[in-house]
Amino acid sequence: MRQAPPANVCRMLLCRHGATAANEMRPYILQGCEMNGPLTAIGEAQARSLAAALSGFLVAGVYASPLQRAHQTAEFIAKSHQLKVETDANLRECSVGRWEGLDWETIRTKDTEAHDHFFADPATNPHPGGESYSDVLNRAEPTLKQLAERHQGENIVVVAHNMLNRVILTPLLGLSLRMARQVKQANCCINVIEWTTDRAELITLNSVLHLD
């Protein structure tokens, strides 16, 4: 797997960024595409471990969301391969609208109707003032497919976000998109997807064996 895949396959190592202050809060708060803070010391350590785990792979490109937490994580990986990080706005995190910076209990108690509406079907019901999971899938999946077409016969790394990764991975598990919240994505996890011209196959989900 560390070497280049067959000529008709793009092996995509889809990762989540390292931890931020929002991720480390208890309870954690929602961090969509409006909050744009850096990695914490823990997040940087996770990113270094991720970069070390991927250093033995033959990597042809490193791509990332333009948000600081994803770009910063990707820079650790790109440096070990003497590459530059390429960003794409379509890889940014889901917009959570007016819930940005709030924890779920606060949302449930103070915005009950919107909370229940979203949880009934997050695939089609957006975060209030933000995006649904279908919205995210519709903007991110074509970008990933384009990258896969560009890099047939190569390994690439894509560093994105919790919700974005979930909506890409959920259909590959054969699940309805409304179930995407059940798909776990740890900070600096690795998902391996092999793309061909007509399909994508999930090889590895939420691997964290490289993290302490």
Structure report:
Helix content is 36%, strand content 17%. The chain is of the alpha/beta class and 212 residues long. It has a six-stranded mixed beta sheet, with helices on both faces. Helix 4 packs across helix 5. The two termini are 23 Å apart.
What helical percentage do the residues reach? 25-40%
Look up the CATH topology.
Rossmann fold
Order of helices and strands: EHHEHEHHHEHEE
CATH architecture: 3-Layer(aba) Sandwich
Assigned CATH class? Alpha Beta
> Biggest β-sheet, characterized?
6 strands, mixed
Strand-residue fraction?
Answer: 15-25%
Gyration radius, in Å: 17 Å
Across the major sheet, the strand order is 3-2-4-1-5-6
Ranges with pLDDT <50 over ≥5 residues? none
Tell me the number of structural domains. Answer: 1
Structural class: alpha/beta
Counting DSSP E segments of at least 2 residues, the number of strands comes to: 6
Mean pLDDT: 98
Shape, per Cα inertia axes: globular
Question: How many helices in DSSP terms?
Answer: 7
Can you summarize this structure?
The chain is α/β, with parallel strands linked by helices and 212 residues long. It has seven helices and six strands. It has a six-stranded mixed sheet, with helices on both faces.
Reconstruct the topology from this structure:
Blueprint: E1 10-16, H1 21-24, H2 41-54, E2 59-64, H3 68-80, E3 85-87, H4 104-110, H5 112-120, H6 133-150, E4 154-160, H7 162-172, E5 190-195, E6 200-207
Parallel strand pairs: 1-4, 2-3, 2-4
Antiparallel strand pairs: 1-5, 5-6
Helix pairs in contact: 2-3, 4-5, 6-7
Binding site for substrate: 16-23, 69
Pfam family, one: His_Phos_1
Protein name: Phosphoserine phosphatase 1
